[in-house]
Design a protein that fits this description.
The protein is of the alpha+beta class. It contains seven helices and eleven strands.
């Protein structure tokens, strides 16, 4: 399995800072090439959301540098990844809370991180950033940890109602702003000739899944330039439709 990767971010129409943070690493390991993508959507007073999102990014970058090589000494087990990543989230939650308390503000960040190995993917999610798999269609891997997503799951709201509800951005969990954080984990097989996408919520409010699949299906992403072009087209389409948030998207194309 090999990979082409791409990442793009935009401050958007109204924000004075871009509080999203993104890291994409192609890693050479004893178990073959892997890709680690970490995307965080920060929020907070005094425009400190970028501090929270960058802190979580650095923690996962450190994990990739120091812990992943040790894991690759033997077959990677799902519970080990879960344990190590949950520890990162819990540690970051405490550190960001302490930092905010020292400034007298609240700040926090969402998290979606995805490790793609030669045959399996591992995803952790807190908040409403997302991971998708595009392979014979488009499938959302993650589940939003939001008020409206919970209401849809309970049958109290339709997906159409959730899209326009004023509470659509209300998070149930956030690293740095929750007393305790309970991440969701997702595992699955990796397909060749597929696209894996991570994005913040600002990327998906104003465009449809069909528009995403049309531009991001693997057969249309043959090199980095094509990936960047497709990503920037959808970012601009979001802005044309008056998306007000920061907009970030990462792509991994397998072959």
């Amino acid at each position: 399995m090999n990979f082409i990767v791409s990442g793009n971010t935009d401050i958007g129409l109204t924000k004075s800072t871009n509080q999203d943070s993104l890291s994409i690493k192609v890693l050479n390991t004893k178990q073959g090439r892997m890709v680690l993508v970490v995307l965080c959507d920060g929020m907070g007073g005094l425009e400190k959301g970028e501090v929270a999102s960058a802190s979580v990014i650095r923690a996962f970058d450190s994990w990739a540098r120091y812990d992943l090589p040790q894991l690759c000494e033997k077959p990677i087990e799902d519970p080990v990844i879960r344990s190590q990543w949950e520890n990162i989230v819990n540690d970051q939650n405490e550190k960001i809370k302490e930092y905010g308390a020292g400034l007298g503000i609240k700040l926090g960040t969402t998290l979606t991180a995805m490790l793609i190995t030669q045959n399996r993917y591992y995803v952790i999610n807190v908040g409403d950033s997302r991971a998708y798999e595009l392979y014979n269609g488009i499938r959302q891997i993650t589940t939003d940890q939001t008020f409206v997503a919970r209401e849809v799951a309970l049958g109290n709201m339709t997906e159409e109602e959730a899209k326009i509800d004023s509470r659509r951005s209300v998070l149930l969990q956030c690293i740095g702003a929750s007393e305790q954080v309970y991440p969701d984990m997702f595992f699955g097989d990796v397909y060749s000739n597929a696209t894996y996408m991570l994005c913040c919520d600002g990327f998906i409010h104003e465009i449809s899944k069909e528009e995403i699949y049309d531009r991001f299906q693997a057969d249309k992403l043959l090199d980095v330039a094509m990936m960047n072009r497709a990503s920037l087209e959808l970012i601009e389409l979001n802005k044309q439709r008056q998306e007000r948030d920061n907009i970030t998207v990462a792509l991994v194309r397998t072959f």
